[in-house]
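> example.struct
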């Protein structure tokens, strides 16, 4: 299997390229528009055919490369069925499987960071978007976010996965690349709570600045970066 974790320094976004092997079909998760040429070059180097692009949610801190990649490769764009992006060709339901050659990826509806947030599970690899981060969780103060939904998505879905499940987030700001569900259970400071009310209290008092150009980014991402 081919698995590449790529990093965008401007937005601290992780993009994931997956394929069952050289010369086969490929899928990209959370691509960033400034890096389109890099993705195309990697696809050419490995003789891969990009057939699917997944965005875990409507991002606020960068513009997706989904439309650009579709224009170049004729790939299909996938998002969860709760997305406000009307032009998405494939909208997957909670627990629906996406197939890529012999690989199967399960969509998991995990609202909280945004109302359209999904995670994607492939074998023991969880692509958690902004729902669950390494030593953190996605903020819940815009785009129909909800600290209560975030708690339910994390504690009643993601943390129910086997502890050895590898966690690959959509962002990291400290240079961390991968964690596990077990490690986050024990060490993630936002998860060391005794109740949903305690978690809501933490999330409602983060006092974070909004991303630069959030309005433009969200507007363009609803149009898939076009």
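> example.seq
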């Amino acid at each position: 299997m081919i698995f590449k974790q790529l990093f965008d320094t401007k937005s601290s976004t992780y993009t994931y390229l997956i394929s069952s092997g050289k010369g086969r079909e490929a899928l990209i998760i959370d691509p960033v528009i400034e890096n389109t040429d890099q993705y195309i070059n990697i696809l050419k180097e490995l003789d891969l055919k990009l057939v699917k692009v997944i965005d875990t949610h409507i991002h606020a801190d960068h513009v997706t490369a989904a439309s650009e990649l579709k224009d170049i490769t004729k790939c299909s764009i996938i998002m969860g069925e709760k997305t406000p992006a009307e032009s998405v060709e494939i909208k997957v339901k909670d627990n629906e499987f996406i197939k890529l050659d012999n690989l199967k990826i399960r969509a998991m509806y995990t609202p909280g960071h945004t109302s359209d947030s999904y995670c994607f599970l492939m074998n023991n690899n969880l692509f958690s978007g902004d729902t669950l981060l390494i030593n953190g969780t996605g903020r819940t103060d815009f785009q129909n976010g909800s600290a209560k939904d975030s708690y339910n998505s994390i504690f009643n879905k993601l943390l129910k996965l086997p502890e050895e499940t590898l966690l690959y987030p959509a962002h990291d700001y400290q240079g961390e690349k991968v964690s596990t569900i077990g490690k986050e259970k024990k060490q993630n400071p936002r998860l060391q709570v005794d109740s949903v009310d305690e978690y809501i209290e933490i999330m409602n008092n983060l006092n974070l600045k909004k991303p630069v150009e959030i309005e433009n980014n969200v507007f363009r991402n609803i149009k898939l970066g076009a």
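> remarks
The longest strand covers residues 2-8.
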